[in-house]
Design goal:
The chain contains eight helices and five strands. By secondary structure, it is mainly α. The protein folds into three domains: 73 residues, no CATH class; 42 residues, no CATH class; 141 residues, Butyryl-CoA Dehydrogenase, subunit A, domain 3, CATH 1.20.140. The strands form two sheets. A three-stranded mixed β-sheet has the order 1-3-2, with helices on one face. A two-stranded antiparallel sheet has the order 4-5. Helix 1 links the parallel strand 2 and strand 3. Helix 6 runs antiparallel to helix 7 and helix 7 packs antiparallel against helix 8. The chain is elongated.
């Protein structure tokens, strides 16, 4: 019997729970699993059973049994009283009785590989069902990010206008009623406009979101690529936030980064 289950991981990891007699098959089976599942921790539980009326042999590890008998005798001497071990004392000790499978690992592999594939088929089908809900949530977050970037783009031109009005107001408050066409004012506004220019960042963000939308329709594994894309978008939002110098624009950035973080959390579940 083969059972497969998985939990979220950024990388691909396979953990086997199976008889020690099959340990030599683990590298081969791991490759087989990772060809089909590239992300997440996959737990593979393998249990062997014999057909009815067929059983493997039982072997006694004589060296361990003798060592345990000597330990019992030493214990009696230490306690200063007789100690008579029973059969159950030996049976409870690990690796005294060894149950040997009559099938060699190579022979077991012939039936194990189809059983493993069947378990992986069931796991992948379950993950695909969950993926439908995940894709829907990612599309919702994508729409929210698009709206957030549009809000940032609309606010960006107003930042310079707001700065100019505030600059003139402060100058008038200190008694400097300068004309708007004064060269010094124009130079200061031009420098500010250059420092807070975010057109390139907005262009890159929109490009990233188009790529994000394309990944949602892909059939090949895209989890790592989407995770990297979210990191790039976070970098662009940080740059905009550093340039903002405007409370309203900064709030739009915070809202967008909140939605982006939600997307990153969901993408950890994407293969």
């Amino acid at each position: 019997m083969v059972e497969a289950s998985s939990v979220n991981r950024k990388q691909g990891e396979v953990v086997f729970y199976m008889p020690r007699a099959l340990a030599e098959l683990e590298p081969l089976l791991r490759k087989r699993v990772l060809k089909r599942i590239s992300r997440g921790r996959v737990n593979i539980n393998i249990q062997l059973s014999h057909p009815e009326g067929v059983a493997g042999g039982v072997r006694i590890d004589r060296a361990r049994a003798k060592a345990l008998d000597s330990a019992f005798k030493e214990l009696a001497e230490l306690l200063g009283r007789p100690f008579h071990p029973e059969a159950g004392d030996f049976l409870r000790a690990p690796d005294i009785l060894l149950f040997e499978d009559e099938h060699a690992p190579a022979a077991v592999l012939e039936v194990l590989e189809p059983a493993l594939d069947e378990a992986l088929d069931a796991l992948i089908a379950m993950r695909a069902d969950e993926g439908g809900d995940l894709a829907a949530e990612c599309r919702r977050l994508l729409e929210s990010l698009v709206s957030g970037i549009d809000a940032i783009a609309r606010r960006a031109p107003e930042v310079v206008t707001s700065y100019r009005e505030n600059l003139l107001r402060r100058l008038r408050e200190v008694g400097l009623d300068l004309d708007l066409d004064d060269e010094r004012i124009l130079r200061e506004i031009a420098l500010f406009a250059d420092r807070c220019e975010i057109t390139e960042e907005i262009t890159r963000l929109r490009s990233h979101l188009r790529r994000f939308a394309a990944y949602l329709e892909a059939t090949e594994p895209v989890g790592r690529a989407m995770d990297f894309l979210c990191q790039e978008m976070n970098r662009e939002f940080n740059t905009i936030g550093a340039k903002a110098n405007d409370a309203a624009l900064a709030q739009h950035v915070v809202n967008a980064k909140t939605e982006l973080e939600k997307a990153r959390e969901q993408i950890q579940n994407v293969e």
